[in-house]
Amino acid sequence: xxxxxxxxxxxxxxxxxxxxxxxxxxxxxxxxxxxxxxxxxxxxxxxxxxxxxxxxxxxxxxxxxxxxxxxxxxxxxxxxxxxxxxxxxxxxxxxxxxxxxxxxxxxxxxxxxxxxxxxxxxxxxxxxxxxxxxxxxxxxxxxxxxxxxxxxxxxxxxxxxxxxxxxxxxxxxxxxxxxxxxxxxxxxxxxxxxxxxxxxxxxxxxxxxxxxxxxxxxxxxxxxxxxxxxxxxxxxxxxxxxxxxxxxxxxxxxxxxxxxxxxxxxxxxxxxxxxxxxxxxxxxxxxxxxxxxxxxxxxxxxxxxxxxxxxxxxxxxxxxxxxxxxxxx
Length: 329
Fold this sequence. Notes:
Elements: H1 3-11, H2 13-16, E1 50-69, E2 72-92, E3 101-118, E4 128-136, E5 139-149, E6 152-162, E7 171-173, E8 178-180, E9 190-201, E10 206-217, E11 230-240, E12 245-256, H3 263-272, E13 280-295, E14 298-313, E15 317-328
Antiparallel strand pairs: 1-2, 1-15, 2-3, 3-4, 3-5, 5-6, 6-9, 7-8, 9-10, 10-11, 11-12, 12-13, 13-14, 14-15
């Protein structure tokens, strides 16, 4: 393996620290278990053996017309503001599995979220509603294996979203005109098989990366709501420079493959007057990375990106600002 490729393998810890993500409200609730756009630069590369610690600071602001949160259908134009701190740990094993390099990633999210809207249906019609929640969210574990073939790199993995965040059914207090609907967790297990690949030319510094995955979730027994499987395609193209900086574009598209089911989904369709709850959204924005820095004497990489979503249906259409710092131990 060339020296240039070895250097860039260390930078892929940025990706490994964020491949698994949070919840905020849900597709049953407007946002899915997986934080879209988590796989971007060097998506297909599993780095060299070692330990990697990552910190992500994320702000997401979105809106949606009609959703169901905690079993409560909301027809109004609803706004979400999510601040997320994620701690991640990745261990890349010094061994060979199926001819590749095995690794495992752990993500622990801490969130502070608020949901606000002006009610348009009785008994709270005309009331300004705001609900908040904070605390630990759903933890994610991702085992993976990566391979290298000169300028081409690819990996396979399985993200498992564990329902560790607290979850409660929505309640409405008519006398005070308030609701309590947001939860820190989704109350379901989710599973996301993923295939990722990267083409990187150390000579020119040009990189193209992509990832394809499908997200499956169990039924939310508290609301009898089954979120349908969703297909996701993520990609990034960057130009890397000898200084350690890289700039480019990153984006994604999300599409549910079927309609949601269960009595909770049927009640939501009826309340919203919707024929289908199938969700979709796409996003695109700039990305900047820097590799080769030092923090506390440890090799550290940084990433900053902004994503604007469009063409959303039945889930939040959001703007996301995302900062990541990853240290190699």
